[in-house]
Amino acid sequence: MRPCYEEIISGVYLIGGAGMTSADDAAIFLIDFDGDLVLIDAGAGRSSSQIVRNIEMLGFSPAAVSNLILTHCHIDHIGSAPFFKKQYGTKILIHELDAGAVETGESRKTAAGWYGTTFPPTAIDRKLREEHEILKFGQEELHCLHTPGHTPGSISLYLDRAGKRILFGQDIHGPFHRDFDSDIKAWEKSMRRLLALDADILCEGHLGIFQPKERVRSYIERYLEEYEK
After folding, report:
1. Domain ranges in the chain?
2. pLDDT confidence tier of residue 228, bands split at 50, 70 and 90
3. Nearest alpha-carbon partner for 25 in 49, 41, 8, 13
4. CATH 3.60.15.10 is held by the domain 6-228
5. Are 140 and 33 contacting, i.e. CB atoms less than 8 angstroms apart?
6. Using CA atoms, how far apart are residues 43 and 77, in angstroms rounded to an integer?
7. What is the pTM of this model?
């Protein structure tokens, strides 16, 4: 039986991804801000009901998911966004440079064509525009950093909780392709910005959870070295 969730640190959970929900889902993370739930990414769209069940298995109501933050516009990260918006009124957030692909359902930019599927045009509730924006939930802050490279509007997030810095750095490993408007130079700058955060835990989009901070740093540096060759 596949696990339905993994607690990474108090109130921060991995609730989806390959081996947990559908094989084509990127990692899906849930943060509990004292009952106000935030999702980071939403899989490829084929496992919405499983995501809901996993949230319920944690003892939460999916209706409590107030915000869904999309780290970029690719289908394996945005697929269940329309479901959560329609079913629970969840607000969808993404950087403005990737918002257009989601709002139009554009097959190339969303990579839906790569996955042999389509994505319905979906309205965005908030477009992130700054290099660093802070979302406040009660007494806590969720930091959104513009980290372009994989796509123009890629973002990374971090949260300080229980004496640890948790970094949500989706798709650090790439890939990079002209269909995505990728930019290696911008990505290198973004990765150095992430290194400067000195995070204790890295929640990556496809390749797992890395800790302690030495493993986080070595993971990012390995890809920097690979692409700088």
Report:
1. 6-228
2. confident
3. 41
4. yes
5. yes
6. 5
7. 0.97
